[in-house]
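User: We ran a pulldown and think these components assemble together. Before we commit to crystallization trials, I'd like a predicted model of the whole complex to look at. Sequences follow.
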Amino acid sequence: MNEEMRQALEIVSIRILEDAAFLFVEPADEGARPGPDWRAAGAELRWTGPREGTMRVWAEPSLLRVLSANMLGIEEDEPAAEAAGPDALREILNMVVGNCLTEAWGPGPVFHLEVPLEADPDLLVGDAEDGFWILAEERPMLFRCGGPP
Amino acid sequence: MGYTVLVVDDSETIRGALARAFGMAKLPMDEIIQARDGLEAIEVLRERWVDIVLTDINMPRMGGEQLVQAMKADPAFADIPVAVVSTEGSQTRVEGLRRAGIAGYLRKPCRPEEIRELLHQVLGDWK
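Assistant: Here's a predicted model for the assembly, 276 residues in total across the polymer chains.
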């Protein structure tokens, strides 16, 4: 992972999740990371510009419900919270990428962000090895930033 | 009497969160109309009067920059204020949007009081 983006991600991901979804977030040490059987939904966003790249985020379905419920101001067990979970994850990623690019490279460069999409589940194993782990409401969440695909 | 606001964003969650923020900020709203992209927004504007448009930038089919250009080029919509609510952090792009005629800009994530301040700045005193 690019060092500037990794540093930006450490600052921005926690702030966005706290500000946009009202979650308690902290970096996850190695002992807090889930095992290889962890099942998570993912979202992916690519960008072009002076520097190109891709970021993915992974979270377990129960956390997606918390994300959407908090953003929409509804209860976690409402059907709307479950339905909106993947969209909420994509929008969190959109905010994280937009803010990370400014944090890493300043407000000068113009980047074009594509529309965030569902991530290929097969990419989770590789991302887990060198991604950035956090705990959101004590549940693991994984970000992985890389160059152009 | 309150305002009619058109919220344009491809994320259903963001449209819902903005609608929630209007309520939390105790804004005088008559109606919040939602559109998923610029093309849907243009369709709404052909049918309905709105006091202000809040739009994202990156959306499928027609993004926010294209929506602003289309509105400013059409005499029927040119005077409707447009504010951008986006993750965009490039000063160059935001300045370009201001030159294109946007009335305000907020960066996501934004707090209800920031939305209230934006609408107050654009619309003036409440009706």
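Strands of chain B lie at 3-8, 29-35, 52-55, 82-86, 104-107. That may be worth checking against your pulldown data before setting up trials.

User: Thanks, that helps.
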